[in-house]
Design goal:
Number of helices: 3
Order of helices and strands: EEEEEEEHEEEEEHEEHEEE
Strand content: 35-45%
Radius of gyration: 18 Å
């Protein structure tokens, strides 16, 4: 296995000119052309949607796509330049590769990795890990790009869906292990905490869940136009910023 968990296809460099209608962004390419790219991120992208910043786009050869370009990452300067991944479809693909390669020492003893497994009331957990010698491990993945200094925070907006997930995951304890894996989609954060300023209810539920046995894995990743590397765990702070 290479250092890269995921390698991007050849990307196009450009400058962000605007994001609009949630799923669209206008980007000026290096040759001066302005293209409309798909923005694969439904959230507010707090702190990582700054007009004038460098971005990288992938290009699809699917003739049926209305917008062949996809916005993959943006370079922020706070204070040093850092690439931040904004494509929310990637974290689960990367984590699946990591789980299949048993990359996380904190998760062991499993021999099966299943995706999108039903549980609770009309919910699906991102991954279910099972093995003959231990209880099942439910792993929910959350993409994390908002930060204050070197502290990554989730969520960056109110998330009723995220609250529901925590409540239903708590109900699985203690018969199963339950893990919230926060995919820190930038390399400049060494700490993690809940984003209570955006959603105090989520922060309260997370702390309650941890008290009941839920495990928090804040996973740090290095993002570059070449690919994505795993850097290890950030520290988890129960006290929000």
């Amino acid at each position: 296995m290479t250092d890269f968990l995921y390698q991007y296809p050849p990307l196009k460099a450009g400058i962000l000119r605007q994001r609009y209608k949630r799923f669209l962004a206008d980007v000026e390419l290096e040759n001066g052309d302005v293209v409309t790219a798909h923005c694969p991120n439904t959230g507010p992208m707090t702190g990582v949607c700054q007009v004038g910043q460098p971005v990288q786009l992938s290009v699809s050869n699917n003739p049926k796509r209305k917008h062949p370009y996809t916005w993959e990452m943006i370079q922020m300067e706070d204070p040093d330049p850092v690439w931040v991944g904004i494509n929310t479809s990637l974290p689960n693909r990367v984590i699946k590769l990591a789980l299949e390669n048993h990359l996380f020492d904190q998760l062991s003893g499993y021999d099966s990795v299943r995706s999108e497994v039903k549980y609770g009331e009309n919910s699906r957990v991102d991954f279910l890990l099972t093995g003959a010698s231990q209880p099942p491990i439910y792993v929910e993945v959350k993409n994390t790009t908002w930060c204050q200094g070197n502290v990554a925070l989730f969520p960056d907006t109110e998330t009723k869906r995220g609250q529901k997930h925590l409540q239903e995951l708590m109900a699985l304890l203690p018969e199963a292990r339950v893990v919230m894996l926060y995919f820190i989609n930038r390399n400049d954060c060494t700490q993690f905490t809940s984003g209570d300023l955006a959603d105090a209810k989520y922060g309260e539920l997370l702390r309650t869940a941890v008290d009941k046995g839920l495990e928090v894995l804040p996973c740090r990743f290095d993002i570059s136009p070449a690919g994505i590397r795993y850097l290890g765990l950030a520290g988890y702070n129960r006290t929000p910023v």
